Request: fold
Amino acid sequence: MIWEVFRQEKTGEYHTHCGNVHAPDREMAKMFAQIQHGRRKPTNSLWVVPQEEVGEVDTEEARFGGTTDKSYRWAMTYQGVDADFAEEVAESQQEQEAAERQRGDD
Amino acid sequence: MTALDPDDLSGDERTAVEHLLYRLADDELVLAERYTEWQVTAPTLESDLALANIAQDELGHARLWYDLLQDLGYSESELIYERDPGEFRHATLAEVPFEEGDWADAVVRGYLYDVAENCRLEALENSAHPRIANRVSKVRGEEEYHREHARNWLERLAGDEDGRRRLQTALDRLFPHALTLFEPTDETVEDDIVGMGIRRRGLDDLREEWLATVEPFLESVGLRLPMDPDDPADRLPDAVGRDRSHTDDWFDLHDEMTHTYRELGRTETTRIMDKPTDE
Reply:
């Protein structure tokens, strides 16, 4: 019997699926899951769930939303900006300001 | 009882501490070495990983105890790789080979050993030797899983007649070797170990406590201890390990365990982790 295993790192966080174990019953599944999924990463709690008890609906049966590209909503563009890039942005801004002054747009 | 000063032991104190540490360390090392034979051959991948993990725990515990022997001036090579196999003091339960492919053997052996280990660790919690006492809780924290693992398997294997029969066969074979866990290394030194408070309880006490746990549990799953109730020690095997008498299988195992060290012509061991501190 296959048991799906969900691991929670810290109190209050979600349990996230991390793999499965073969075990004849719940007690043994909990025991095996500790070794296989709870010992090498920080773990606060594990769930074991009989695989057959998991309900699934997939793209064969349903049209899910979320197909439009809405990545512009994510404020991720400036992640990982380093000092060099910040300087580049500052220089570019100064260039534009200088160009505007030359044009006398003010 | 006064605490011992680990850095200033009298001759008798040092002997008693050494004997106790060899009992603990050698048991853990040799049993772990046996357990690893199950790697990739246990009944399922999960049970394979669980037993490998238990073996790894036991090796870690062996290191904790060997470290304290190193405090007394021995090197790791002297303690393990270059030590005469006839000087080891583990119980024969740790050294006898598994019946080929018999998972019931691994389960019964783990159970008998882990319950005994729990009894002796309890008796070391208030050891007069502060560094021994300090290390007990680290070891006990991992031992709970070992006992749960063994009990879970016993309950399930005993669930049908074939499984129960195999467990009983393993129990009949291993029980005499398990009794050697409670044998003295030397009567006088054993009296000192208890008298000096290095271990707070005597071996007969520990054996009784062990029997009071294993007997009812094994009975509850339909197994019977092959024992004379009036004389629990009457089934001792010829070699008891503690006094450095061993079965031939131990010499083969030691040869295998030290093979690579010798083949590579090593004279010292590699240390990849710092020694644990006692503070």
